[in-house]
Amino acid sequence: MRKQFPGPRILSLLLAVAWLLAAQTHALAQDKAAKIDELMKLYNNYQQFNGAVLVAENGKVIFKKGYGMANMEWNIPVETDTKFRLGSITKQFTSMLILQLVQEGKIKLEGKLTDYLPDYRKDTGDRITVHQLLNHTSGIPSYTGLPNFFQEISRNPYSVSDFIKKYASGDLEFEPGAKWNYNNSGYFLLGAIVERVSGKPYEQVLKERIFDPVGMKNTGYDHYDTILAKRAAGYEKRPGGFINAPYLDMSLPYAAGSLYSTVEDLYLWDQALYTDKLLSPELKESLFKPGLMNYAYGWVVRKAPLGAQGEPVAIIEHGGGINGFNTLLMRLPESKSLIVLLNNTGGTKLGEMSQKISAILFGKPYKLPPRDIADTLYNTAVEKDVQAAIKQYRELKATQKDAYDFSEPQLNTLGYRLMQMKRVKDALEIFKLNVEMFPQGFNAYDSLAEAYTENGDKNLAIQNYKKSLELNPRNTGAVEKLKKLEAAP
Q1: Nearest one of 311, 285, 314 to 301, comparing CA atoms
Q2: What is the distance, to the nearest Å, from the Cα of residue 307 to the centroid of all Cα atoms in its chain?
């Protein structure tokens, strides 16, 4: 039988339908991009976001843009190829290296820590597996949880071996595998294992095994002394404006948080994860298999609804925070969607932003962001006094609840800003208000206790540290400060 081909009219009709569908898809993508831009402009105007955004849908980039300044002192704007420190997004690259070495038979997931780092203390290292290091169940104390880490340790350079001996070899907090506790020490140790097994520096292994194969030319280990084109400076947001972020020696975050990248390079990384270029399908399944607290190997893997009544969708994500930077990479694998947010003004609401962008992608309702109440109250406290600011807080909460963010961290931030200005008594009033508004917030009591300590009110400081520990027994900072207060004459 002779094959029949469509006639000219039918062919024209099919082409017209295809063109119409393509035009509708393009228009829909443009509409989504416009909504994302409107949303992120508002966050930027409210000083809640300063950085770069990339959003992909069905594997294609539909939006990318920079907001604000990469360098505020020189008025250099953020672009989509601006390089940001990633913080803990680094962990997903470290876990990929480990699994590549597992694939080659050089590491076993159930192998012990001391199998690969024989100098590590045997009483604990013989009980901890690589698997437990990857999913934060090792029980090793995290070095960033040390009470004096940021004040006394974080500016000093260390070799990998010296740092492990001094700060990543503490007594176990729990039996390995029994609990989950987010742990930078575990990923520091994984970087050391990569170096020992491969015989090469961690950053060289990253370049050879991931960055070069994927084409990530704007990603690497961030050394402070390297002249790096288009590197964003790091800042911290506080009521009243921005300050330069405190210095951090980049030998310390290492395999737990040392990398820099761009939104464009992270898109290439996301796309590579849909292929078998870097890892076999079987081991990729292990990479994304969630354990305790939905944590897999360098990724949080969960299902969550988008919108109040939406169907749960699969989410693979990880955030990062490091001096002056806050980052988030969120993958929605069922639709091959991606949201990358890289911010250079310290901690901010990236989770909230990603949820709203996800709602836009899926056609769900979302609310535009509120202003930070801390900024408004700060201006009032400076121009008038703290009692006027407290009165304003109560009035605005009663009359404009949706226009401002009244969450616990807002008053906490304002209180610490006043303490920095040596207005300790004013800070006490703000912290008291925070405790009143959030009576179950352990951090509110912790901050109030700190202000009482600064003001010389030892008994009230002890009382509030104890209340903080009652609400959160794992508040190790309060434990240490309480010991010092109770030991003081």
Answers
A1: 314
A2: 22
CATH class of the region 371-487: mainly alpha
Length of the chain: 489
CATH superfamily of the domain spanning 87-223+245-314 = DD-peptidase/beta-lactamase superfamily (3.40.710.10)
Interatomic CA distance for residues 255 and 133, integer angstroms: 12
Residue (of 185, 192, 205) closest to 93 by Cα position: 205
pLDDT single digits (tens) 213-260: 999 999 999 999 999 999 999 999 999 899 999 999 999 999 999 999
Closest CA to 365 of 410, 310, 316: 310
First-to-final CA distance of the chain: 104
CA 144 centroid distance within chain: 14
Query: Looking at 68-226, which runs of residues are DSSP E strands?
Result: 69-71, 76-77, 84-85, 220-221
pTM: 0.90
Distances (CA, A) of 160 to 148, 191, 210: 20, 9, 22
Token representation of residue 189: 């140790």
Alpha helices in 104-171 (DSSP H): 113-116, 122-125, 130-134, 160-167
List C-alpha distances in Å: 49 to 71, 88, 351.
14, 19, 12
Q: Which residues of the chain does CATH 3.40.710.10 include?
A: 87-223+245-314
Where in the chain do CATH 1.25.40.10 domains reside?
371-487
Give the span between the Cα atoms of 175 and 164, in whole angstroms. 20
Distance between CA atoms of 269 and 147, rounded to whole angstroms?
Answer: 35
